[in-house]
Fold:
Amino acid sequence: MLEVTGLTTKYGAISALRDASLTVGAGEVVGLIGPNGAGKTTLLGSIAGLLPIDSGTIRFDGNDITSGAPEKILRAGLSLVPEHRRIFADMTVEENLKIGGVTRSGAERAELLDEMAELFPVLRDKWDTPAGYMSGGEAQQLAIARALMSKPKLIMMDEPSLGLAPILVDLVFELIDTLRAQGRTILVVEQNATRMLRAADRAYVLRSGEVVATGTGAELLDRSDLFDTFVGG
Ligand code: ATP
Structure:
């Protein structure tokens, strides 16, 4: 479904991503792990059209979306849950969700709102509350629900467990399992490498902007060399 080939993205003279390639097939949960500064966020931002890429190609659902405008990429069916959630604190839960569904028709948006209220009971309970009043775990669920409101074919999540208490980290991984069971396609960046490898069908390890290992979650969990050298956790 997603095919990234030879992607290089630079900040000025520094290559944050070098010749990175990855694929995500329909219905797969694919993890992207690696130490701080490895280029994980840069890779998701490059795919989502948020960063100008230097070279490489990105194909999604049979189309070339390389260097497409973010809105066009969203409309093509690729949605991003950004790092640090980036929810709109002054807007209510419902308003945040409606923004996520801006590319859908009114009737579809109403259906999606019902679906999100069902999938995230905590959001249903705080429907009219400004999102700024929510806890970190609630805000993360809102950020994921907002991304689902565009009815994406592929959802990308950037560090969804970051800064959450252990019980909420469990909740995030349970949610990933639920979304997988619904047949959704997910690409997740995670610092929590061990948990991610257990949750993922396949994963990629990034280091210093390069993909240095790939395999099934189980295969990579067996690679103690990776963990000792640079993955950590
Ligand atoms: P983290 O887990 O810390 O978010 P990451 O793997 O997501 O790390 P990136 O945020 O993609 O890594 O950063 C990759 C490299 O690019 C790092 O060396 C970082 O310092 C650099 N970088 C990121 N954003 C910028 C920017 N806006 N300007 C200059 N350099 C940047």
